[in-house]
From TrEMBL:
Signal sequence, renumbered to the chain: none
Keyword set, alphabetical order: Lyase, Oxidoreductase
UniProt EC number: 4.1.1.37
InterPro entries for the chain: NAD(P)-bd_dom_sf (IPR036291), Sc_DH/Rdtase_CS (IPR020904), SDR_DHRS6-like (IPR051122), SDR_fam (IPR002347)
UniProt keyword Cell membrane present: no
Any one GO molecular function term: uroporphyrinogen decarboxylase activity
Family: Belongs to the short-chain dehydrogenases/reductases (SDR) family.
Gene transcribed to yield this protein: hemE
Source organism per UniProt: Candidatus Micropelagius thuwalensis
UniProt key word Ion transport: no
Protein name: Uroporphyrinogen decarboxylase protein
Source species taxonomy: Bacteria, Pseudomonadati, Pseudomonadota, Alphaproteobacteria, PS1 clade
EC top class named in words: lyase
Length: 258
């Protein structure tokens, strides 16, 4: 039996990258998953490839109306919801001086407003689960200063604090829902490739097994494994916590002697 056997999940930003890896591994471990994304063609193709335990719905996470539609779809297709993975995100490279207000608003609409809307929209269904879980994708950018990713860092910081507030709200109101955040460092995804100027190149080959060297990027499966664990009943005592998936980045002193 898989670690999330019988669970129903909704994953945002699931057409590619981390979201697709999350959806894929959740299905491999026994869940049924509604993949959502603003990219309809890629999202539908991904869901079709994953088989009968996957479905797709278009979702602009900054739209309350589209969230209502996505929640109705997951209930109609699968009968409920146990796991919400708020993964959708963008990054606009701009420091505090060059970041425009439009860039700031767009970034936060997706990763700040989007997470708020997702949690609020999904909660009525999650309340009906025996062990519901909300997994919010934050970043090590919520812990460190990254001037070129100013708006991105602001949004991920909001995700970090919203996660804790939602977790305690669910406890105080006796809801069977946990809420946690994942803080990954660099992962080889289309978004990271684009930021690094490699958008037209094939992804780097990153070993799927063994210990990675200090400067290595991770692969999407490194994050997906954490998502599956946090979605499982084995994580029942974990809420309000932040899970660092960073190959030691936050633990490493800047002036370490080699």
């Amino acid at each position: 039996m898989g670690r999330v056997e019988g669970k129903i999940a909704l994953v945002t930003g699931a057409a590619m990258g981390l979201g697709l890896a999350d959806a894929t591994m959740l299905i491999e471990e026994g869940a049924r998953v509604l993949l959502t994304d603003i990219n309809v063609e890629a999202g539908q193709k991904a869901a079709d490839a994953l088989g009968e335990n996957a479905a797709f719905a278009k979702l602009d996470v900054s739209s309350p109306e589209e969230w209502a539609s996505a929640i109705a779809t997951v209930e109609e297709k699968f009968g409920g919801l146990d796991v919400l993975v708020n993964n959708a995100g963008i990054v606009i490279v701009a420091d505090p001086e060059s970041c425009t207000y439009e860039d700031f608003k767009k970034t936060n609409a997706i990763m700040n407003d989007g997470v708020f809307l997702g949690m609020q929209s999904a909660l009525p269904l999650l309340k009906k689960s025996k062990n519901g879980s909300i997994i919010n994708m934050s970043s090590t950018a919520s812990h460190l200063g990254y001037p070129p990713f100013f708006a991105y860092s602001a949004a991920k910081g909001a995700v970090r604090s919203m996660t804790k507030s939602m977790a305690i709200h669910c406890q105080m109101t006796n809801l069977p829902v946990r809420c946690v955040s994942i803080h990954a460092s660099g992962i080889e995804t289309p978004m990271v490739q684009t930021v690094q100027g490699r958008g037209d190149e094939a992804p780097m080959e990153i070993p799927k097994d063994g210990i990675l060297p200090q400067e290595s990027l991770g692969c999407p499966e490194d994050v997906a494994r954490m998502v599956v664990f946090l979605a499982s009943d084995d994580a029942r005592f974990l809420t309000g916590s932040e899970f660092i998936v960073d190959n030691g980045l936050l633990a490493r002193p800047a002036d370490i002697v080699q």
